[in-house]
Design brief:
The protein has 321 residues and is of the alpha/beta class. It contains twelve helices and ten strands. Strands 1, 2, 3, 4, 5, 6, 7, 8, 9 and 10 form a ten-stranded mixed beta sheet that branches. α4 crosses α12 and α7 packs across α12 (294-315).
Length: 321
Amino acid sequence: MKNWPKLLLAILLLFPTLAFAQNFPTKPIKLIVPFPAGGPNDIIARVIGQRMSELSGQPVLIDNRGGQGGVLGTDAVSKAPPDGYTIAISSAGALAISPSMERVAYDTSSDLTPVTLVATVPEMLVVATNVEAKSIGELIALAKAQPGKLNFASSGPGSLPHLAGELFKLTAKIDIVHVPYRGAAPAVNDLLGQQVQMTFLDLPVLLPQVKAGALRPIAVGSAERAPTAPDVPTLSEGGFPDLRVENWYGMVAPKGTPKEIVTALHGLATKAMADPAVKEKLAAQGATLIGDEPEHFRAFIADETKKWAKVIKDAGVETAK
């Protein structure tokens, strides 16, 4: 037992962290949302954050830091103290796409600590009502009959809707033209005005217009039909089993956050997500709650990063790198 002094020292050094984690949280948690208030990312964070606050007895304060497609807010959490009191629920764009599209100040794999994949939201492909296509097959046939004539709107260059359109082009072998906008709202407005022909956007963004009959749904990008749009087929049902297009939102902490604190955050978040009222509220937004383990989420981010990097390369998407 000649090594017992070293063992004792290790235990003593570890004890404060374990004790801290056991009592975590003891003060308010700042939850950064890297987008403005009112969007899907913000709604998901507020619903889950409210329940986390109720469970922990500590306020979970939403901090909206929009800009650069989620990059600015995500960068802020990467630079925060690694104590578990500044975290973020960020998006596929900021965590898996932007690093391949532009110069960002953080490395997702090394500057952030994954906590859990919170939710997925399918992208919905819709067309303007003057487009003579009611199915994915008819839309592809129309595009092939008029190469370069049809266009698709997106919420901006390098956004998930943009890359969803590029992946659609590559998979279906069609020639349609990308028309970027500064956000989803102006893209939807021009689609309603029949200035553009189609778009992929988060299902909750498009659903009100679809239900009103102002836009025609073609397909959703999830593996199964969305409960909020059960009559809309999946892209897989349309003959494209490999064309999966979903946005997703995940909780991350700064690099160096102790494992015990990550475990405490994970337990708090997943317990909040398991609440029936939380599930009901977010299901109405088209979100499917996940709540996986940190290492699984890390592997998921890596897979998504590779997937979209390949689309960017194969489609010849211009980047700022």
